[in-house]
Amino acid sequence: MRIKNIFALIICAFIISKANAQISDESRYEFGLRIAPQVSWSKPDSKSITDGGISLDWNYGFHVAKKFTSRYAIAFEVNVINMTSKIKVVDSINVFSPTKLPAGAPNTDMTLNYHLRYLQIPILFKMTTDPFKDKWKAYGEFGLGFSFLLRSKVDVSSSVLKLNEVDVDNPENGDVFKLKDVNTGVENSTKINLLRPSFIIGGGLIYDLVGNTKAYIGLRYDNGLADYMDADKWTANNSYTALNIGIIF
User: Fold this and answer.
1) Exposed end of the chain (fewer CB within 10 Å): N or C?
2) What is the pTM of this model?
3) d(CA 199, CA 123)
4) 73 and 248 in contact (C-beta within 8 Å)?
């Protein structure tokens, strides 16, 4: 048993030394900054609401990557993500607003535009190719993102009521409104869930600038895995595709 253990330790030491040798000419850690214009959208899972269309948003942040070899790394990011999630209400509803519509009014063309801000912490596996044309590399990435809600506001638009930038958790005077189903009388919540898990995949090109400094550009798809709406009747997930632009030090 001792001989087998010694042999296993020798193999492990050899593998580790080979991995270290592959990155001996580069830093084992990478630090970077990124900014990404994005296209956001909602995908409703409820028949009571439909997608309200796409929106242009943006996100930004930084990352730290631990390299195992010159081609593979694990990266952790901290990002601030702005997302506009639009939905249209299919069901006929009654709108109640104490200051604007005290008695309520029937409505069939309600649109809600949610302006959401998240703090996201992705964990990503990153891969790069060998260099080509001297200074270029291709990269790929995939992993999971965990986003925590920082802010949620909504624009309410309909034939009977229009409100802008309503804080759904603590509406100011004049911004209070309620939506009730005409048939069932059930009140629909406009609140947002605090946690948004997502699957992330992307890729692009890296260009060596000078020393260990690099620039990159690529596409990233961030697919929401869970309902972002804190409501019993309305369910939808929100996703985005971004143009990922950054610099690595």
Assistant:
1) N
2) 0.84
3) 10
4) no
The residue extents of the domains of the chain are 26-248
Residue 171: CB partners within 8 Å, gap ≥ 6?
A: 177
Mean of pLDDT values over 35-50:
92
Q: Which residue has the tokens 């519509």?
A: 101
Tell me the two tokens of residue 59.
Answer: 């996100």
**Nearest CA-CA partner of 23 in 75, 60, 74, 71:** 71
Partnered with residue 58 across adjacent β-strands are: 37
Q: Hey, what are 209's tokens?
A: 């600038």
**Tens digits of residue pLDDT in 193-206:** 999 999 999 999 99
The mean pLDDT value of the chain amounts to 87
Mean pLDDT of 61-85: 95
Contact of 177 with 157, CB cutoff 8 Å:
no
Count of CB atoms within 10 A of residue 75's CB? 18
Pick the CATH number of 26-248 from 3.40.50.2000, 1.20.1560.10, 2.40.160.20, 3.40.50.11900: 2.40.160.20
- The Cα 120–Cα 63 span in angstroms is 11
Which of helix, strand or coil describes residue 131?
coil
- Of 213, 206, 30, nearest to 131 (Cα)? 206
Tell me the three state secondary structure of residue 153: strand
